[in-house]
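Q: My labmate handed me this sequence with no annotations at all. I'd like to see what the chain might look like in three dimensions before we decide whether it's worth expressing. Could you predict it?
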Amino acid sequence: MEGVQIHNFDFNKLMEFVATTEGEVYLKTGEGDVLNLKSRLTQLLVLSGAISQATIEEATVVCENKDEESALFRMNLYRD
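A: Here is what I predict for the chain of 80 residues:
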């Protein structure tokens, strides 16, 4: 799992991106946790507020589809 390092990233924007992807997308935290952002459990945790960070200070996001990972890299770089 290589992925894209993200810093000070809006979590809601990340979830909007995940909704557009075809492959699985994983969030790997500095503590070693790996969350499948497309899973219902993760989505429920987000909705319940258990994961309510407005921004992600530092994490790695891994996309199964490398084109989607490139799009995420551009989004992280240009903040669009």
